[in-house]
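Typical record is below.
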Amino acid sequence: MTAVDLNTAPDALNNDQQLPFSQLNTGAGTTILFIHGAFVDRGDWDLVTLHLPDYHILLPDLPGHGEANTIKPFSTPLAAKLLTTTIRRHANNGKAHVVGLSLGAYVALRLAVDYPDVVDELFISGIKVLPPMSRFAPHGLWLEQRIENALPRSFVRWLMDGTDIRPADLSRSTVALCKEVLDTITFADTDSIWPSPWPARTLIVAAGKAGIVPSSDHPADAVKLREIGRQLNCETVAYTHPQMRHPWNRQDPKLFADTARAWFEHDAMPEGFTELRVR
């Protein structure tokens, strides 16, 4: 791994509101932008990026998260707008492959729809569209974060097949942020909220492992997104992996990195993946 820079970008969070970020392998050619999930930060990618030393990597914090916690409120339009600035200013040739996990997948889609000129190819995982919830749901999610943090990490790893779940920063996991996150992912009541078609060639992955902890994704949502994406790019595909859980970047980071590499280099998918079919 070369030219590693793990410091916050010097122009982050200035008057025109830019996201703090880290970058790795600044001497490499092609850029990959990684977008993290809810209640974590850019450090959630540390186990994955070790396996991609030949890519220039951008690791931003989303609004309301990490060092961007003062940029509020979180929304996918705001996140996409700010990420566009990051890509245009810091990605090689002003364009990047984009990887988004969980909440980051929703942001990645918004980025690909609204700013297609900065997105080369897309790899998203963890789309789990939820039905509308009660007004008390953010309080339930707030409480859930605290219960999860109280559990011993060894017990969490046992429940999640060794997945290295990082504790959430509870000082930043507010009820307001919980509501903003839920507002992003609870829209199954109407087709009008699904994204418009986007032109980027896209890999959509739905994790397939549930068990004691309900940590699988929604394959039907992945298929629906695939059909939307194929309206502008017939190479968009959807896959599942029966042994991977929702946060599989922490469960099998090498497989996650190998999957990104295979997709962006137009190679065959790693062993274990199955393409999702329309039922």
Observations:
- The longest helix spans residues 76-90.
- Confidence is low (pLDDT under 50) at residues 1-15.
- The first strand starts at residue 21 and ends at 24.
